[in-house]
Design a protein that fits this description.
homotetramer; 280 residues; mainly alpha; Four Helix Bundle (Hemerythrin (Met), subunit A); Helix Hairpins; 12 helices
Chain lengths: 280, 280, 280, 280
C-alpha cells in the first residue's frame, strides 16, 4: 500500500521526520504511531470525563491543563505535518488534514467564545486516524474484504433502505390518522420517528398505541420489521460467502479444465496433472 | 422490459406525449420522470409538514395553496395519461391508475367534508411510482434477484409466520390466565399484542409481567423469540446465496436450447452437446 | 405418508367414516378437513373475543351458546374418532387424542367449577391439528427441510442455549450485587429475568440500571447479546444452505467421476458422457 | 483428548482416585461427574433462592445449613484434587483450580465479614466445569467447530467492535450536545450508554430524545444499528459455512501425508499421488 504523500524535498531532516510521522514501517515511525494513539485516546477520555458534572466540579483545573497540553501537542503535530510533506496544501485539504485542524480549533475558540470547548468532541473523529494506522499495519485483507462486500452489496442495500423509508412514511401516516395527537402521535414526523423505533425493534416505549386498531396495525408493523431483519443479513452473508470463495486462487487445469483449486495446490485434485502457475 | 401500455392511435401528438409520460428512454421522458419525482416528494413533504402543529399555525395558508397546486398538477397528469394511452379503461383499473386517482381525490373531497384532507397521506403510495421509475432505469437485476428470492422463500416463510402466530395465540392466552387484567393483560387480544411486542424483541414496556410465574414464562417467550430470528434470516440468506450462484453464467446450448447451465459446464447436461463459451 | 391409524374392522360404515375423518385424500375427507379447520378457528375466536370485557358485557349470551355448540360438535367428533379407529386406546393416548379431549373438557367442568371455562384456551392447541392437515396436503418438503435443519443443528443450538443461560446467571448475580434491591434488582431470579430481557434485546425498561458501574456492565451485556444474535442465525443459515445443496440429486459420471449434477441432468456437464440413473 | 494432568506417583489409591475425580472414561469417573454436576447446580440454586427475600425470611436456617454442607463438600473435593494430582501447584494456578478455590472461600470469609456470603455467586463460574465435563464426553466436534469459527472470525469481529465503539462515542457526544442534561443526557458517558442501548436495539426507554433534532439523529442511529446487525451475522454465517465444508472429508495422502483435501479430490493437490478412499 503506497502512502498518499511523499516527503518534502530539501533539508534531509524533513525526509527523516516525514517517515517518522507519516510512515509506519520502521521503529521510530511505529513508536510515533503508538504515542499518537495514546495521546488521541487520552485527549478523548479527558473530554468525556469533563462532561461528568461530579468530576468536572472536583477536577476542572486538571482537565483544563490537560486539554491545553493536548491541544498544543496536536498543534505542533499539525504544523510538523505541513512542514515535512511535499504538498502542504493537498494535505491541508485532505480528509485527515481537516480533521487534524478541527481537533485543535475548539480549544483556541474557547478563549473568545464561552462554551465552544464542548465542540472538542469533534476530536472523536481522530479515532479514525487510529483505525487508519491499524489498517496499514494489520487487518488490511480482512477490512478490505468487509469493505468490498459492503460496496458490492450497495445496490441491494439501497433498494432495501428505500423500501424501509417508504414503509416508515406509510405506517407513520396511518398511525397519525388512527391514534392522533391525544396518544402521543402529535405529527406525521413524530409518527415516522415512532415507526422507525418500532420497525428496528428498538421499542423505547415513550410513545405506544392505545386504540385497538392502532395495536393491530402495530402488530403488523412489528412482524414486518422482524421479518425484514432477514434481508440485510441475508444480503451481507451471501455476498461475504461469495467474496470468501473468490478469494481462493483460480488456476485452470490444462488437462481436465477444473478451475477451482485451493491456494496451495500444485496438482489438479481431479486428474493429478501438474498445475501451471501464471503471473497471477 | 416492455411497457404495459401502448400509445393511443390517431393524432401524432398523443404518441409523442405517451413517450414523454409513460416512457423512460429518451431525454424528454427522463425529464418528465425527474419533474414527477420532485413533485411527488414535494407534495408528500407538504402533507407531512402540515401535520406539525407549530408549522400549521404559522404557514397553513402557504400549505393550502401548495396543496391545491400539486392537486391540480396531478389531476392534469391523470387526465393526460387517460388521453394518450390506447386503453384508458385498462389504465384506470390498473394498480397505478387507482393510486394516481386516489392521490388527488382527498383534496376535492375536503371541499365538502371537513378533515378529509388528512386522507392525502394516501399520496405516499405514489412513492411506489418513483420506485417503479427507478426500477426501470437501474437496479433491475438487483431488485429482481431480491424479489425472486422472496418468491422462492414464500412457502418456507408462510410456514414460519403460521408457527409464530400459533405461538402468539398460545403464549398470549397463557399470560392472560397468569397475569390477568390487574397487571395490564386485560384481554386475550391485548395479551397477543403484548406477545408480538415481546417475541419480535421490540419490548415497549407499556405492559410488563409482575408475577414470578409470568416472568418465568416471559423469559421462555423471549428466548424463543430470540432463537427464531435465526429462521427467516437463515432462509433468506441460503436462498439468496443459491440465487446468486445460479445467476452467474448462462450459456444457451446450440442444439437443445437449454440455457440454464452451471458455471463450470462444458457440455449440455440435457443433450451432451459441447457448449460454446462466448466473449461473456 | 402413511396414516398413523387404520379403520376399525366390522361394519363398512366405519371404514367409510374413517376415511372421511382421518383421511385427506378424497373429496369428503377434504370437505371434513375444511369444516374442521373453520370450526377450530371459530371456536378459538369466540374464546378470544369473550375475554374482551366490552364484548363480554354485550354478547356473553351469544358466546355462551356458541361455546356449547362447538363443545358438543367437538365431543361428537371425538366419540366418532374413537368409534371408527381400529385401536381406540392408542388414539386416546396419542398426542392428538389428548388434545382433542382437553379441548372439550373445560366447558363441562365449568358446570361444576366457576371460572374453569377460561381453560378453554387450551383449545388453541387444536391449531396444531390444522398445521398437521396442511402439512399432509402441501408444504411437506419445505417443512421437512426446515425441521431436519433444526434437528441437525440441535447439538450446536444446545451448546448455544447453555452458554446463554450461564451468561444470564453470572450477569444476573453481578447486577444483583452492583445495583441491589433499591434499584429494582430485588433478587437474583429477578436479575436473571432482567438479564434475559436485556440480552435478547427486548428491553422493556421496567427495571433499568441506575449506578455508573451497573450501566457499564449493562453496556457489556448488551454488546454480548447483540453479538451472539449472530450465532444461531449463522448456524441455521449454514445448515440450511448445506441441506439445500444436498437436496440436489447426486449421480456420479462414469467417465470423469464428477458427482455434483443438477436434478434434470442426463449428460455430464464436464465431459459429455451420458449419466446412468440408478434406482436412487 | 488428553487430560491436562496426570495422577500423582506413589500410593496406588492416588491413581485410582485421580481417575475418579479427573477422569471421565470409566463408570466411577462418570458417577463422580454426575454427582458433581448435581452438587454444583444445587449449590447455585440455594444461593439464588436465598436472595429472594420471601424465601430468605422463611428458610434462612435451611439455606445456611445447606450452604455449609456444599462448602465443606467442595473443600474436601478441592483438597482431594491437590492430593491426587502429580503437579499440585500447576493445578492450583490453573483456571479451574482458582475457580474451585473461589467457590468455597466466600463462606469462610462470611464468618469474619458480614455480607461476604453474597460473593458466593462466584460459584456460578463452576458451571464452566459442567460445560467442560459435557465437552469431554459429547459435543466435542460441534463446540470445536463453533469455537474455531469464532477464532477464525476474530479479526473481522475486532474491526466490527472497534467500528461500533467509534460510532457510539461520536453519536453519544452529538446527542449530549443536542439534548443536554435537561433531557436525561447528563454526561457523555451516559449518552454513550444510551447510544449502546439504542444501537443494540434494546431500547429501555429510561432516556429518550425530546427535541426534533435529537429524534432525527436517533432515527439515523437506529437505522445504522439495525443495518449492522447484518455484519456479525454475515461474518459468522459465512465462516461457519466455510468451516462446515472443510470438515467434510479428510483423506491423508499416502505419499506426502497432506490430509486436507476437498470432498471430490481424487489426486493429492500437493504431490499428485492418487488418493485411496477408505470405507469412510
Amino acid at each position: 500500500m503506497t502512502l498518499p504523500f511523499r516527503p518534502a524535498t530539501g533539508a534531509p531532516w524533513r525526509a527523516r521526520w516525514f517517515h517518522i510521522i507519516f510512515g509506519h514501517d520502521d521503529a521510530p515511525g511505529r513508536l510515533f504511531d503508538v504515542v499518537l494513539i495514546i495521546a488521541i485516546l487520552s485527549s478523548i477520555l479527558v473530554t468525556v470525563l469533563d462532561s461528568v458534572s461530579d468530576l468536572h466540579d472536583r477536577m476542572s483545573r486538571l482537565f483544563y491543563v490537560l486539554e491545553w497540553v493536548f491541544t498544543l501537542a496536536f498543534t505542533a503535530e499539525y504544523l510538523m505535518r505541513i512542514t515535512v510533506v511535499n504538498k502542504p496544501r493537498a494535505y491541508m485539504r485532505s480528509f485527515f488534514g481537516i480533521v487534524d485542524l478541527l481537533a485543535v480549533l475548539p480549544t483556541y475558540l474557547s478563549l473568545f467564545l464561552v462554551g465552544s470547548q464542548y465542540l472538542l468532541v469533534v476530536r472523536a473523529l481522530r479515532i479514525l486516524r487510529i483505525l487508519r494506522i491499524l489498517k496499514m499495519t494489520r487487518y488490511v485483507d480482512e477490512s478490505n474484504l468487509l469493505w468490498s462486500t459492503l460496496v458490492r452489496s450497495r445496490h441491494k442495500i439501497l433498494i432495501f433502505v428505500s423500501t424501509i423509508l417508504t414503509l416508515v412514511l406509510i405506517f407513520g401516516a396511518l398511525m397519525y390518522l388512527i391514534e392522533g395527537p391525544g396518544n402521543g402521535f402529535s405529527s406525521i414526523p413524530k409518527s415516522m420517528y415512532w415507526a422507525i423505533v418500532t420497525m428496528t425493534t428498538v421499542g423505547f416505549g415513550d410513545i405506544t398505541p392505545h386504540t385497538m386498531l392502532g395495536q393491530i396495525l402495530t402488530s403488523v408493523i412489528m412482524l414486518v420489521g422482524y421479518s425484514i431483519i432477514a434481508v440485510p443479513t441475508g444480503i451481507f452473508a451471501a455476498e461475504l460467502a461469495a467474496g470468501m470463495r473468490e478469494a481462493r486462487r483460480r488456476i485452470r487445469c490444462a488437462s481436465c479444465r477444473l478451475d477451482d483449486h485451493e491456494a496451495d495446490a500444485h496438482f489438479c485434485r481431479r486428474c493429478g496433472t501438474a498445475l501451471e502457475h501464471g503471473a497471477d
